[in-house]
Amino acid sequence: MRSWGRCWPSARRRSWRRSRPGSRIVATILTPDPQIRPRPDMRIPTATTQHYLHSIIVGERLKKNEFCRDYVEFLATYIQADKRPYSFEQHRPLLEIAQRLPQLREVWVLKGAQVGLSTLAVGWCLYLALTKGYSVGYALPTKVFARRFLKTRFKGVIAGNALLKEAVRTTENVGLMTVAAAGRDGRPGTSHLYMLGMENITDAISIPLDALAFDEVDVLNQENMAWADDRIAASDFRQKLYFSVGMNPGLGMDAGYQATSQRVWVVRCPACGKDGQVLEELFPECVRRVGGAWERTCVGCGKPLAVQESGRWLARHPDRDVEGYRVPQLIIPGVSLDYIMGRWEQARRRRSLLAKFRSSTLALPDAGERQRITADILARVLDVYPVQVTAEWSVGGADVGDTCHVAFADFQGGQPDSQRLRFIRLETVPSDRMVPQLSDLITAMGCRCFVIDAKPFRTEARRLARLHPDVVVLQYFKGQAFGISTETHDGHTYRTVSEQREDSLDAYCDLFDPERRGVLFPRYLGGGDFLDSEVAAHHLKGSQKVETLDARLGKNVPRFRKALENHYLMACNNARKALVLLAGGQGPGGAGVLPVFGGL
C-alpha cells in the first residue's frame, strides 16, 4: 500500500472505523483526489483489487473469531428484523430450527405467512457465506422476484450492521453478493451468494454451490428445482433448505413436508395438564375471548395457554432421515390474534377465502375449489375391511406408464344413494412384465371388466385384450361424451371406451361427495394408515385443477393438472368406467348404477 502512496500523488486516505467499539482502525483504503488526473503509468487499485484487500482484512477478523461462530448468536448480533436486533422472544418455536440447522442436510419448513422464516433464512445464508466460506444459492420463482428480494430483504439486513456492510458487496443487476469470508482452510477468502430465478434452467444448472435455500416452493418450477440439486453434488456440506406457505395438498411444499419427520408444535395446558394440543388442527376451538381479548386456550378446560413456554416440537415420524417442521401463525405470538381472528371472520363465509386462510395462517395447504378431493374428504370414505388377493368377482382398471398402477373393486348394491365402489386391491406391476402379471391378477380377482390405457403401451394392451377378449377394454381420452366402440388391428377386434378427460375425472371425483360417498377405501393399506399411503397422495395431487388457457374459448378455464403423480387416481377412475360398462350389460347393479357412476 505504500507503493500506491508514492505513485499516487495527492492521494486521500479514507479510514474505515466500522469495527467493534474500542478497536483500532482496521484498514486504510486509498481513493484518488478528484482534482488530480492520474498519470498513465500510475498503479491505480481497481475495485477488484480493493475488494481482495478488503477480503483479507475481514477474513482476518473471521479467523480471529470476531464474527460469531454460533448461528443463534450471529442472528442476535448482526441481523435486524423491523429495524430491531433479531430476537426469538416472540418466535421461540423457531429457536430449535436455528439451533439444528448446522447439523441438518435437508430441511422442509411448511409455514404460515409472516412468521419470521424468511429473515431466519436470509441470516442463515449470510452466516454460511461469512463464517464458513460457503457459496450459497437463494432460489425464488423468477429473476425479477429474486432481484427485488435482494434489494429489499438482503440489502435491508446488510445495511443494518456496519460489519455486514464492510463484508458484503452486492451487484444487483446480476443478483450476486460477493462476501469477504473466512476461508475453509482458515485463511481469508471470498465466497458468493447468488439470487436464482427458477423460471428457466440456466440459473438452476450453471453455478457450483455448497448450499441451496428454496423460498416460495409451491410456485417454483419443480423440474428446475430438481435440476438445481446437482449444483451441490461436489460439496462436502450439500445442504438444502425448503420453506414456503403450502397451497396445494400433496404437491410441492406439502409433498416435501409429508415425506419428512413431520414435526409439529404441541402445547401442554399448565392448568389441567392436557397435553398434545396442536393448535392449527384444533382451530377455531382453541381460540376464545378471555377478559375481552382473544387468547389461545385449552380445548379441555378453556384456560389460556402459554403457547411458547408450554410448547415443544414433536416428530410424528422420528425414524425418517429428513427433518420437517410446520410453523403456523398460531404458535408465533408475534402475529396478532386480533389479526388472525379478523381474517377468520371473513374467511369462514367464503370457500375461496377459507382456503387462503388455512394455507397462510394454519399452514394447512388447501387449494379451495380447485381441490376436488381433500384429506378430510378421503377420511370420510374409509372403512375397515380386508384387502383381498382373490375374489369371486370384481372390476378393475390400470394406469400405464413406467410402472403400471392397478386397482380392483367390488360393488356394494342397494338403493342408488347407498351404492359403493369398494376398492379391494391396489398395487403396482412393472411395465416390462405387465401382460403376464395383469393376466394373472385378472384371473385371481375374478375380474368381469378391466379398463386399461391404450397408450403408451398399445402393443402390450392389445396382447392383454387378446388373452381376455371378453374382459379387457382399451381406454382413450378423446371425444366429448362417454362412448363405446371397437377397433381392428391385424385381424383382431378390440373393444374401446372413450371419454373427455375433464368429464371423466369430474365424474370420478363426484363419487367423493360427502352426501353420496360413492366409493370406499380400506382404512389400513400396506401395514399403515390409508391417508399416509401412495394411493391417497395420488388422489390429492390428481384431483387439483389449475387455470389453463382454452384456445377455443379464448379464456382461462379450470382443468385437472397433468404430468404429475396421479397414477392410482387414474387407475381407480378406469375401474369406475369398468363398472359402468359392466352395469350396462349383465353386471351387478344393472342400469341403476348409471345415475351414480356416470357413463352410458
The biggest sheet amounts to: 9 strands, mixed
CATH class term of the largest domain:
Alpha Beta
Share of helix among residues? 25-40%
Count of DSSP-assigned helices: 20
Runs with pLDDT <50, length 5+? 1-67, 585-600
Relative strand content: 25-35%
Can you describe this structure?
This protein has 600 residues and is α/β, with parallel strands linked by helices. It has 3 domains: 62 residues, no CATH class; 191 residues, Rossmann fold (3-Layer(aba) Sandwich); 216 residues, Nucleotidyltransferase, domain 5 (2-Layer Sandwich). A hairpin with a 7-residue loop joins strand 19 and strand 20. The radius of gyration is 30 Å and the shape is globular.
Structure, briefly:
With 600 residues, this protein is α/β, with parallel strands linked by helices. It has 3 domains: 2-63, no CATH class; 71-261, 3-Layer(aba) Sandwich (Rossmann fold), CATH 3.40.50.300; 382-597, 2-Layer Sandwich (Nucleotidyltransferase, domain 5). The protein is built from 20 helices and 29 strands.
Which tags fit this structure?
600 residues, Rossmann fold, 3 domains, 9-stranded mixed beta sheet, 20 helices, globular, disordered C terminus
